[in-house]
Amino acid sequence: MRVDLFDFDLPTERIALRPARPRDAAKLLVVEDGAPFADRIVRELPDVLRKGDVLVFNDTRVIPAQLEGRRGEARIGATLHKRIDLRRWQAFVRNAKRLRKGDRIEFPADVTAIAEERLPDGSFVLAFEGEEPVEVLLERAGRMPLPPYIAGKRDTDEADRSDYQTMFADKDGAVAAPTAALHFTPDLIAALDAAGVARETLTLHVGAGTFLPVKANDTEDHAMHAEWGRIDTATADRLNAARAAGGRVISVGTTSLRLLESATGEDGVIRPFEGDTSIFITPGYRFRAIDGLMTNFHLPKSTLFMLVSALMGLEKMQAVYAHAIANDYRFYSYGDGSLLIP
């Protein structure tokens, strides 16, 4: 499909630079086929969902994956994208023309890395020196990797260390937050428990590729970056049992959705999964694992707007976003949410 079909005008004042406080006070636009749009707030989710529904969360934890350093006199910026092994990461590099294979980059707090290899997409393999775990080095030298549409408007600060982390964050490895889950609080989870709404977790380590613009003119020519994910056997079994009992599987975030769809066969059975996925969902895709999606509002011409258009239909999502803009919904990672039920 033509990428320009997924374009829309977004006023810059609609981009959220800070999250709602409390988190569950964010707006929630409920979109269900055959029903008018409903303007709610996130804490009303227990009234919107049904007993027996299952919310699926991503328990990845965002690491301080953005680094500023030097190679000699040259300033080098690095955003880690995907773990290769214990000491090596794939990274997008700013000022990459000043970096050669074998160069040492010096970051703050005595953290150093060797540029081992330039990959075909222009990113680098960085090998961190020393014996301390890389996660420890990043806590010392790194910053939270806020999306460019936030970081370009204000400095990253200490508040982002908690704001850009979900309450489910457990397994280190993401360089972007599964932002739909940022809206959840312990009080909201208690209310969902009381309403009989179940929850499950999986792990997908979100990569910085999620922020990359689609530069191709046609979706067929866009290559997704791979991300590592895992669904264990017990979780897959419980999700299949919930659907068999009439419950709806509702993904909290596009990251959970992409992993669930990667793990599900043509027969609609969710299976255990461990490995990379580069699934790219565009209109025409037949969903197999999920019955609904809770997600934030995404960028024009982004792979995520293509995904929600595949779920609900492009014309419907254009109307949804027009409603959100007209009614002062806040967009992107720190913005408001939507609940999409096809």
CATH hierarchy: architecture of the largest domain: 3-Layer(aba) Sandwich
Topology order in helix (H) and strand (E) letters = EEHEEEEEEEEHHHEHEEHEHEEHHE
Task: Provide the spatial order of strands within the biggest beta sheet.
Answer: 2-1-17-16-14-3-12-13-15
Number of domains: 2
Q: Structural class, from helix and strand content?
A: alpha/beta
Overall 3D form: globular
What would CATH call the homologous superfamily of the largest domain?
QueA-like
Q: Would you tell me the overall average pLDDT? A: 95
Provide the low-confidence segments as ranges.
none
User: Can you summarize the main beta sheet?
Assistant: 9 strands, mixed
Rg (CA only)? 20 Å
CATH topology of the largest domain: QueA-like
Q: Separation of termini? A: 21 Å
User: Treating each run of at least 4 consecutive H or I residues as one helix, how many helices?
Assistant: 9
Question: Helical content, roughly?
Answer: 10-25%
Strand percentage? 25-35%
CATH class of the largest domain: Alpha Beta
Number of strands: 17
What would you say about this model in short?
The chain is α/β, with parallel strands linked by helices and 342 residues long.
Description of the molecule:
The chain has two domains: 3-62 and 163-341, 3-Layer(aba) Sandwich (QueA-like); 66-141, QueA-like (Thrombin, subunit H, Beta Barrel), CATH 2.40.10.240. The protein is built from nine helices and 17 strands. The chain has helices spanning 45-48, 134-141, 148-151, 158-163, 186-194, 233-244, 254-262, 303-312, 314-326; strands at 27-32, 38-41, 54-58, 60-62, 66-71, 74-83, 88-94, 104-107, 111-118, 124-128, 171-174, 198-204, 227-231, 249-252, 273-277, 292-296, 337-341. A hairpin with a 2-residue loop joins strand 5 and strand 6 (74-83). The two termini are 21 Å apart. The model has no long low-confidence stretch (mean pLDDT 95).
